[in-house]
Design brief:
The complex is a heterodimer of chains A (217) and B (310).
Chain A lengths: L3 E4 L4 E5 L6 H16 L5 E6 L3 E6 L6 H17 L7 E8 L7 H7 L4 H9 L3 E6 L6 E4 L14 E4 L3 E5 L2 E4 L4 E3 L2 E5 L20 E6 L3
Parallel strand pairs in A: 5-13
Antiparallel strand pairs in A: 1-2, 2-4, 3-4, 5-12, 6-7, 6-13, 8-11, 9-10, 9-12
Helix pairs in contact in A: 1-2
Chain B lengths: L3 E6 L4 E3 L19 H10 L8 E5 L3 E5 L3 E7 L2 E5 L2 E3 L3 E5 L4 E6 L4 E6 L33 E2 L26 E8 L8 H9 L2 E7 L3 E5 L10 E6 L4 E4 L6 E3 L6 E10 L4 H5 L7 E6 L2 H16 L2
Parallel strand pairs in B: 12-19
Antiparallel strand pairs in B: 1-4, 1-11, 2-3, 3-10, 4-9, 5-8, 5-10, 6-7, 6-9, 12-18, 13-14, 13-19, 14-17, 15-18, 16-17, 16-18
Helix pairs in contact in B: 1-4
């Protein structure tokens, strides 16, 4: 696998696999992340996936940057030779429309679709968790039907309930915590996306696959 | 009875240690002390490991009562300390007897820390006792302290010779309102023109009033991107200097998001980030200077050793 290493300050290095969003590049990110977590040396602190990059954080007091870079190179070579286990598929039951999805009618009207068609198109694909960020447990999902792309609300809501499923631009996502936000809300799940007392604390982890299951009211 | 009672919580007083690293890939921020050198020194003075949980505040106003004998040390900036009515220097360990009060008075801008022998005994959440207010977890029920709160301490029996030790002045962080801060250029320095990069390293920025535990906004000459501020979202960490579309840089701090979609022009070195955190919002001034990785690592090791070996 081709990769580039760039320091991010004196406590991290960014491993860069590419510059465009695509599933293969993103899979390389997760493959290396998994290798790094398997048998890390003392001084390894974290490996945080992005769309095309992996941010590896280290404690320079006990791990030199040269030892870190050598280790990353070695693990990346090994990662390219190992067949990845198939990703975990997480099914997320969603109630679409009504009070659970107050913007569903508006999204349907904007795209000149019926609400059923919006639901069908949203629940059809298998999505990939490209990365997690913004809030604990907030998954950046790849794979939404481009016909569902919808601009954000012109004025954001003060508070969006946890579990809300929304669309913003070409992305869809689930709010793990109650939060202000400008996403168009089309549904809600009862699953707990983030629980600090659980291990792991989030329902989704980077590299997972996700399918939304339409549950009628 | 828990040994520490909060009489007056002061402002933004929370329990912090050196932060949680292990769940960043799931979006959980690092959190932890804004000035880890000060917390580490206070802990070392009372005989704790550098990363034990202590109190962090800004603006002072804190008052506590001890219900057991303990040993404390305060460190940081912008306050003075009284124990049972006596003025006690910062960067020094001091005995607190049962029934005595500990008061922190605001004297200026900055973050202050109080360490207790044994460390504050709140439950670890995801490997750390640090409070993350926005997520509502860690520390004491995931919130700032309130009057009437009772906080437990881990068992400790500090030996008498740990009392009245102080950190020599030349080993304390050199706080100032006007700093030159070391950075490692990038990771996205090539997103800016060479004129913009030159301007970034020659300008003086003021810490904006819009600054908190998530990030410090900088007021100064705007920075121009070659082609847009947005990048594909990627991992971030405290110290990264993001430049959004308006060209005004933001230094990410301890509660920053784990990923971000703005170009990063440079990243503040670990040794200097605590000094930057102690700059006063609204008036603190900062210039940035590129340094090598070797220089940065040597300075970090030196400052950490100064803070933790007494």
């Amino acid at each position: 696998m081709e990769m580039k290493l760039i320091p991010v300050g004196d406590g991290a290095v960014s491993v860069i696999f590419g510059s465009t969003i695509d599933p293969i590049t993103n899979r390389q990110v997760h493959a290396l992340a998994r290798r790094l977590h398997t048998q890390p040396p003392e001084g390894f602190l974290a490996a945080v996936p992005g769309y095309t990059t992996l941010l590896v954080q280290y404690d320079s007091l006990c791990l030199s940057s040269q030892a870190l870079l050598d280790w990353i190179e070695r693990e990346n070579q090994a990662a390219s030779q190992v067949e990845l286990p198939s990703p975990r598929l997480v099914e997320i039951p969603v109630r679409y429309g009504g009070s659970a999805g107050p913007d569903l009618d508006q999204v349907a009207a904007l795209h000149q679709m019926t609400t059923d068609e919006v639901i069908h198109r949203h629940a059809a694909p298998i999505y990939t968790v490209y990365l997690i960020g913004f809030l604990p447990g907030f998954a950046y999902l790849g794979g939404m039907d481009p016909l569902l792309a919808t601009p954000r609300l012109s004025s954001p809501r003060q508070s969006i309930p946890a579990g809300s499923v929304g669309i913003a631009g070409a992305q869809t996502g689930i709010y793990p915590l109650a939060s202000p936000g400008g996403w168009q809300l089309i549904g809600r799940t009862n699953l707990t996306l983030f629980d600090p007392a659980r291990t792991p604390p989030t329902l989704l982890t980077p590299g997972d696959e996700v399918r939304f299951i339409h549950v009628p009211d | 009875m828990c040994p520490i009672e909060v009489l007056d919580p002061g402002f933004f007083t929370s329990i912090q240690d050196l932060g949680r690293r292990s769940w960043q890939q799931c979006g959980v921020p690092i959190s932890g002390a804004m000035d880890p050198l000060a917390l580490a020194s206070a802990n070392t003075l009372v005989g704790n490991p550098a990363g034990a949980a202590g109190l962090e505040w800004t603006l002072g106003g804190l008052a506590l009562r001890a219900h057991e004998d303990t040993l404390v040390a305060a460190a940081g900036r912008g306050f003075r300390l009284e124990i049972n009515g006596w003025e006690i220097p910062l960067w020094m360990s001091a005995v607190v007897r049962r029934g005595w009060t500990v008061r922190v008075y605001h004297t200026g801008s900055g973050w202050g820390y109080l360490a207790f022998s044994g460390g504050l005994a709140v439950p670890e959440v995801m490997g750390s006792r640090s409070t993350y207010i926005k997520g509502g977890f860690g520390g004491l029920d995931g919130r700032f302290l309130q009057a009437g709160d009772l906080v437990d301490l881990n068992p400790a029996s500090p030996s008498p010779e740990l009392a009245a030790r102080s950190l020599p002045v030349n080993r304390r962080p050199s706080y100032s309102d006007d700093l030159t801060i070391g950075v490692i250029p990038g990771p996205k320095a090539d997103a800016f023109t060479s004129e913009t990069l030159a301007a970034f390293y020659q300008s003086t920025y003021t810490i904006s009033q819009v600054s908190d535990r998530m990030g410090f906004c900088l007021d100064g000459p705007p920075l121009q991107h070659i082609s847009g501020a947005d990048i594909l979202s990627e991992g971030t960490l405290p110290g990264c200097i993001q430049v959004p579309g308006n060209g005004q840089p933001i230094v990410l701090m301890r509660d920053c998001q784990t990923t971000g979609g703005y170009t990063k022009i440079a990243t503040v070195i670990q040794a200097d980030l605590p000094l930057l955190a102690q700059l006063p919002p609204g008036s603190g001034q900062v210039r940035f200077k590129p340094v090598t990785l070797e220089t940065a690592h040597a300075l970090h090791a030196l400052r950490w050793q100064n803070a933790t070996q007494i």
